[in-house]
Amino acid sequence: MSAVRDTGVEGRPEDIRAVPVRRPGRWIAAAVVLIIAVAIIHSVATNPRFEWDVVGEYLFDERILEGLRITIELTIISMAIGIVLGVLLAVMRLSPNPLVSGGSWVYIWFFRGTPVLVQIIFWYFISALYPKIDLGIPFGPSFIHGNANTLIHPFTAAILALGLNEGAYMAEIVRAGIISVDEGQSDAAHSLGMTRLQTMRRIVLPQAMRVIIPPTGNETISMLKTTSLVSVIAVGELLYAAQAIYAVNFKTIPLLITASIWYLVCTSVLYVGQYYLERYYGRGSSREEPLTAGQRMRRLLLIRHEHGGGAGGQ
Amino acid sequence: MTEPMVRAEAVHKRFGRNEVLRGIDLVVEPGEVLCLLGPSGSGKSTFLRCINHLEKINSGRLSVDGELVGYRDVGDKLHELRESEIARKRAEIGMVFQHFNLFGNMTALENVSCAPIRVKHESREQARGRARELLDRVGLADKHDSYPSQLSGGQQQRVAIARALAMEPKLMLFDEPTSALDPELVGEVLDVMRALSTELGMTMVVVTHEMGFAREVADKVVFMDDGVVVEEGPPAELLANPRHERTRAFLSKVL
To answer: I want to staple A184 with a disulfide (CB 3.0 to 4.6 A). Which of A162, B92, B101, B222 is the partner?
Structure first.
């Protein structure tokens, strides 16, 4: 008979208590970082030209909040257009029909190959190119028609420019995601009698999400900041709102700080959202579910508690 | 006279210039278990994939249960089937893969109930009920809610078999079902396959290197090499007294 090792709490061997190695390099590095941080905070807090009182005064100004609303609106609509267009372009790109995949390639080539600022201005001046717009069946009846100047106002131009541009980037992200899913998954789905569409929707895309979500989160954060570019065509988003105020009172720096604070708040919220989305779509891909920030904190406290209070504890 | 379950006549398959199948003639009767043996690259797996049209054959005729695979006879011409028709026929043929290919985003239960819900339009409760029964039958009663990544290879392969069975196929194809498994897990998968044959009388085509399984369960063994059938016969005969030199050479390496 072989001896059974006692793994119970009673027989747990005592933890090693050794004198830790001294690491002077770490202490010096930490001190340097601390000194720099204190210096920056001191200068920011004491330099009167930051005019923090003005920042506070305008942080919840109606015009700034209205700008923030438009920035968020632009981000959401442009990303929605970009994601839908991106999935469509990615599936087209992988089509066996050369005209379909070629069309997608040309689209991506064009919209990734020109600066988004140029595209924004271009859409703004589209009425110079097409004074009249007819939306309908080519060479057939039209459903919407009218003067381009009245149809394409700055907000529409901004949405078109940002959304169509984003579509090209999202297409590449989605395509990378689809390719990352093993071909055996499609084989298995087909062998069960699923059609190509069902296979894409039920099997491939959900698994591609794990690869698609992180860069899409980055794109959303990037989009939030890119929306500031449309201030050049006088869309009243956050930066434009700040500019409009400092054009009158010349408080340029405080108002730029105000805008920056709001940008930081929004990107921080997006970071958190991205974390939970990744966690959701990562299920089934690793043996253990990653912990949420709250769970990690609880676990950390629990371990502390166990070490401090000996055995037991919940 | 009953139709054979699978009938292949002079089946050819090329990948570019590479001729993988060079005239396969083969018959599988209903209720029969046929084991395909042969060295790697001999075209066994490709032939298996042709049977449910995962690969298109280049020439010859291949039919399942009396109906051509992928085509329809119209007068003296062949018409390609529409995608939905191909899908409908595939739904009647179960397939089990070397690397399991379980859907990674679904639990074992969802893997098994997915196709009945989406393809056969069964109600959710009905499909899940049967999925539970099937998982119990393959010995995974406690793993219904596990994701594939949380299961061992042998467990994954048993889920894959249950997934194929959930569509109530009339024919099951096994593509080296135990080749990716650790040795000690091979037995549990073979046990499930053996039960399929003895208890359900399932018609099975099995590409395998498990000579013991072939000897014990197969009604017929086919030895393939270089894209052709070299010889076929009852397992006791073919494995003990191979007539062909190539068969003999192969068997001497694997037995």
So the answer is: B101
